[in-house]
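User: My advisor, Dr. K., asked me to get a structural model of this assembly before our group meeting. I'm new to this, so sorry if the format is off. These are the inputs:
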Amino acid sequence: GAVVSQHPSRVICKSGTSVKIECRSLDFQATTMFWYRQFPKQSLMLMATSNEGSKATYEQGVEKDKFLINHASLTLSTLTVTSAHPEDSSFYICSARGTAHTEAFFGQGTRLTVV
Amino acid sequence: GQNIDQPTEMTATEGAIVQINCTYQTSGFNGLFWYQQHAGEAPTFLSYNVLDGLEEKGRFSSFLSRSKGYSYLLLKELQMKDSASYLCASMDSNYQLIWGAGTKLIIKP
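Assistant: The format is fine. Below is the predicted structure of the whole assembly, which you can bring to the meeting.
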């Protein structure tokens, strides 16, 4: 299957700082990338959908100025959590889909802890 | 509205068979997905159904009835490593995945 690499897998940052999470499709061109957040024992919550070369579409309630998404190439999307606060601590997961695929492939996820 | 329902938790015995049900209501339908998610890890793809019927893939099978808005995931010859959450997701008319809350499957020896 297609491989999606997400980095870092874990990050601890201080409150008020920014954190960047990268999501790369290693062996296919990801025309669409999805960013999810998952709190413990809860379902995946879609934050935003991004298509290569265009602005991300954010879900209702997700602050686009706080969660900056860049999808500048067909193999890379980044999520930057700006001015992070403890309530932003969560598991962030990206997934990617190419034109040849029906299913989306997930990255390994990033456990963010804001202290 | 859009809604996916699946049981919160199920328990089964090693070597046995378990069926995890999922009912869905979405705006349009472009397929039903099942993913497996181990604790602390990202989901991994298990199956995709868009036509009615049963799709078999090794120990795992997935069934879809579009008229009933119903799917199930069947796991045979259960192994301890099958202990995980199983997520049902329906793809709507905009090709967005609508996720269920997941079913935590506990396997006992």
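One thing worth pointing out at the meeting: The mean pLDDT of chain A is 91.

User: Perfect, thanks a lot.
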